[in-house]
């Protein structure tokens, strides 16, 4: 118990000396202000750069999505065979049969037996 008390007293004294010493130091104050300005500048620049990259990515994704869907529908209309038609995914089988079906597909894929 006395060891904890001594440790707390020493920590308190050290903190008081360091905090008061640094708070009164003009050099440390200049360093802190200078560092804060740089951090704020980098944060602002980083956020702006990140936002511009997200905007560009969104533009490219939108352009790709619309160009893919329009070309797929036009190819589906022109081909007549129905292979280029985009359809919603089929719901997998449920329950035990669905589990074993999915497991079989994964095993065939891992062994290279799947033709797809």
Secondary structure: elements and pairs:
Elements: H1 2-24, H2 26-79, H3 95-111
Helix content: over 70%
How much strand content do the residues show?
Answer: under 5%
**Spans of at least 5 consecutive residues with low confidence:** 70-81
Distance between the termini: 72 Å
Q: What is the global morphology?
A: elongated
State the total count of DSSP E strands.
0
Provide the gyration radius in Å.
Answer: 32 Å
Q: Largest sheet, if any?
A: none
Decide which structural class fits the backbone.
mainly alpha
Q: What count of helical segments does DSSP give?
A: 3
Q: Could you tell me the mean pLDDT?
A: 80
N-to-C series of helices and strands: HHH
Task: Give the gist of this structure.
The protein is mainly α and 116 residues long. The protein has three helices and no strands.
Characterise this structure.
- It is a single chain.
- This protein has 116 residues and is mostly helical.
- Helix content is 81%, strand content 0%.
- It is built from 3 helices and no strands.
- The radius of gyration is 32 Å and the shape is elongated.
- The termini are far apart.
- Mean pLDDT is 80; it is low at 70-81.
Which key features would you list for this structure?
3 helices; 81% helix; elongated; mainly alpha; 116 residues
